[in-house]
Amino acid sequence: MKQFNIKTKALSLTIMACSLLSLSSCDEKDFLSIDNPNSVTESTFWKSPSQFNSALTTVYAAMQFQAISGVGIHEEELKADIGDTYTFFSPLAYRQLTYTDNSPQVVNKWNQLYIGIFRANQVINQINKVDASIFAPKEKESILAQARFLRAFFYFKLVHSYGKAVIRTEVSTTDLDKPASSIQEVNNQIIIPDLMYAKENLPTTWTGLNIGRVTWGSATSLLGKVYLYDQKWGPAAKEFKDVIDSKIYALTPNILDNFTDQKEFNSESILEVAYSSTANPGANGANVDDTPFASGAEASAIAPQYASISYGGFNTVVANYYLHELFTNDEIDPSNPINTTNTQSRRLTASICPKNFEGTYFGVTNSENKVHAYRGLGLTALVKKGTNWYQGTSEIPLNRSGINFRHIRLADVYLMYAEAVLNATGDVNEAIKYIDLVRSRAGVKTLTQYLAENSNTFPQLHISKQVNGGIQPKVAPTKENVLKHIQMVERPLELCFEGFRWNDLVRWGIVKSVFTNLGNDLNWRKNNFATILNKAPLYIEGSVNLLALLGIQNYNPAVHDYFPIPAAELQSNKNL
After folding, report:
1. What DSSP character marks residue 189?
2. What does the DSSP 8-state code read for residue 279?
3. Using CA atoms, how far apart are residues 498 and 259, in angstroms rounded to an integer?
4. Residue 320 half-sphere exposure, CB side, CA atoms within 13 Å?
5. pLDDT of residue 36
6. Is 225 helix (H, G, I), strand (E, B) or coil?
7. CA 113, 119, 123, 129: dihedral to nearest 10 degrees?
8. Cβ pair 472, 465 in contact under 8 A
9. Which residues pair with 353 in a beta bridge?
C-alpha cells in the first residue's frame, strides 16, 4: 500500500441531510427520533484532529478520480497535435473534435472536480467552527492549508478545462442555482488566496507515511502556473525561481524514474497522485470511491489505453508522426556520459516505442513483430509513458496500474520558468540555461552546443525533415525563436501524454496555426506516400493515418478551446 492518501477510503465523508418522507404512526416517530449511536453525522464527527485528517484524506482521494488524474486524460491528449487513434475506438471523438456536452470525459471531469471541491469545503468550513485548542500547535493551519491547496487545484483544473466555473465555497444542498464566473474571477476569489495561504502554512517536506501530501513547493509551483496562464510573466517567474532556488528538488538522473512505480515521490516530484495496483484487489481500475455500489480501486486505469494490444492493452492512443519525428530529431550528445549504448534520446526510450525501439517492451525486443499490431494502419510509434512496459510480460488485469500520476515535476517548472523569463525580461541566456538542463538529462545536444557548432544559430527541430527534404532552417537565439522552441520542441518532448499539451496550445493561442501545419504535413505524406513507405525513422506502413484532418477542419476556438459545461448541469442550474 502506498502513502497516506491511498489508505482505504470507505469513509467517503459526504455528510448530507436525509429525510424520511412518510411516518405512519406515533410509535414509529418515537423510535425514529432516537439517534443511532453508530451513525456518523455532522454533530458527532467534527470533534478531533484525527477526524479532520480522515476527512482531509477524502479530499486527497478525489485527486485519484479517473477524469482528473487517470484514464480520462488519454482522451484529452487526442485533442492536441501529438496523438492519434483509430476509427474503431471511442476516443476518436476527441481526435476529430466531435465530442458533445454529454460525452463521458466532459461530464465526469466536471462532476469529479466538484466532488473534490465539496469535500475540501467541508474541511475548510468545519475547521473554523471548532475550538482551536483541540489541535496541536500549527496543526489546524496545516490541515486548512492542505484543504485550501486542494480546492485551488480542483478550481484550476475546472477553469482551464471549461473556461469558467461556478464558485462554491459553502457546503449547501439548497443554494445550487449560481452563475458561472470567469477564469479571472475564480483566480482572484479562490485560487490565488487559497494558494497564498497554503504557501505560508505548508511544510517544505513531509516524512514517513506523510510523503505525498502537498507542500510549500506544490503551492508555489501551482501559483506560478496560475500567473503563467494569466500571462503575468514577472510574478510567474518569481514563483518558479523560488522553487528552483530552494534546492528542495532535483532532476532525476534517469528520466524514466518519473514514469514507473519504482521510484515514486522522488527528487523531481512536486505534485503527485498516488495509485496502487495491489490495494483493494479485485476492483476495476476505473472505479473511484464515488462509484455507486462499488469501492474505489486505488489504481489507475490509464495504462491499458496506451499499451499495445498484444500485451493486454488497447493502444487507443498512439504517438502521431509529428511527435515521433520530433523525438528522432532530438540528436544525442555522444559526449554526455548518460549515453552508453543508446543511439536515441533517453526521453524517447522512456516515452514512445517506435518500430526500431531500443531495449525491450514488455520483455520483447524489436526483432520480434508482435509489438506493433496495427502497423499496417499507419502506426509508427506506441506510447510507453504511463504503461507497465518495463515490468512483466503484459498489463495488469482489470485495468489496474499502480503508476502514480505527476501533475507537477521539476522539469516542467524549469520549462515554465524559461518561458516566463523570456516574456518578462527577454533574457535568452537565462532561459536557455534551464532548457539545457532538461536536454542534458535526456542525453541530447543542448541549445548551447548547437549555437557553438552553428555560428550562434540552432535548428528548428520541429520542422519535418521528411516533408521538407531533410532541411531544418537554423535560426538565431532570439526571444521569439527560443519561445517557439519551448512551445514546439521542449514541452511536447518532455511532457507528452502528461495532460498538458492542449492547455498549452490554447493559452499560447496557437491551436489554429499548429493544426494548419499538421494538416499540411499529413496531406504531403498522403500525396507522397510511395517515397516514405517503410523508411527510417518513421517506418510508415500500409497507409497514412488521416483521421486528424477532420478535427483540424472542425476546430473552432469558441467551441473547442474549452469543454462545454455538461448538459445535465445546464438543466439543473437555472443561472447557467
Report:
1. I
2. S
3. 10
4. 27
5. 53
6. helix
7. 120
8. yes
9. 382
Cell of 316: 487507443
Q: What is the pLDDT of residues 467-484, one digit of tens each?
A: 999 999 999 999 999 999
CA dihedral defined by 513, 302, 496, 151, rounded to 10 degrees?
Answer: 80
In this structure, are residues 387 and 71 in contact, taking their beta carbons and an 8 Å threshold?
A: no
CB distance 482 to 491 below 8 Å: no
Residue 120 burial (10 A CB sphere; 0-12, 13-18, 19+): buried
- Give the DSSP letter string of 388-451: -TTSSSSPPGGG-B---EEEEEHHHHHHHHHHHHHHHH--HHHHHHHHHHHHHHHTB--HHHHH
User: Per residue in 441-466, pLDDT tens?
Assistant: 999 999 999 999 999 999 999 999 99
For residue 483, give the 3-state DSSP assignment: helix
Separation CA 432–CA 490 (nearest Å): 11
Q: Is 331 helix (H, G, I), strand (E, B) or coil?
A: coil
The CA distance from 15 to 172, in Å, is 11
Task: Yes or no: say if 434 and 440 are a contact pair by the CB < 8 Å rule.
Answer: no
Distance CA 348, CA 39 (A): 54
Nearest by Cα to 348 from 321, 325, 379: 325
| 120 CA to centre of own chain | 20
**Cell of residue 38, nine digits:** 453508530
CA 143 to chain centre: 25
Contact between residue 479 and residue 419 where contact means Cβ atoms under 8 Å apart: no
Per DSSP, the three-state class of 23 is coil
* 534-557 per-position pLDDT tens digit: 999 999 988 999 999 999 999 999
| Cell reading at 361 | 517492451
Task: Please give the Cα distance from 415 to 435 (Å, whole number).
Answer: 6
Where do the H-state alpha helices sit in 443-547? Answer: 447-453, 479-485, 491-495, 501-508, 511-527, 529-532
217-262 pLDDT, tens digit each: 999 999 999 999 999 999 999 999 999 999 999 999 999 999 999 9
State which H helix or E strand residue 381 sits in: strand 381-383
**DSSP letter assigned to residue 564:** P
Please say whether the beta carbons of 252 and 440 come within 8 A.
Answer: no
Threshold 0.85, pTM exceeds:
yes
Q: For residue 540, give every residue at least 6 positions away whose Cβ sits within 8 Å of its Cβ, in sequence order, or none.
A: 321, 378, 380, 525, 529, 532, 533, 534
Cα–chain center distance at 10: 26
Q: How many CA atoms lie within 13 A of 254 on its CB side?
A: 10
pLDDT digits (tens, 9 = 90+) for 380-432: 899 999 999 999 899 999 999 999 999 999 999 999 999 999 999 999 999 99
Contacts of 309 (CB under 8 A, 6+ apart): 315, 373, 374
Rounded distance between C-alpha atoms, residue 421 and residue 432, angstroms = 10
| Best CA proximity match to 416, nearest among 439, 443, 401, 435 | 435
| Helix, strand, coil % in the chain, rounded to nearest 5 | 50, 5, 45
**Cell digits for 64?**
485519484
- CA distance linking residue 436 with residue 288, whole number of Å: 40
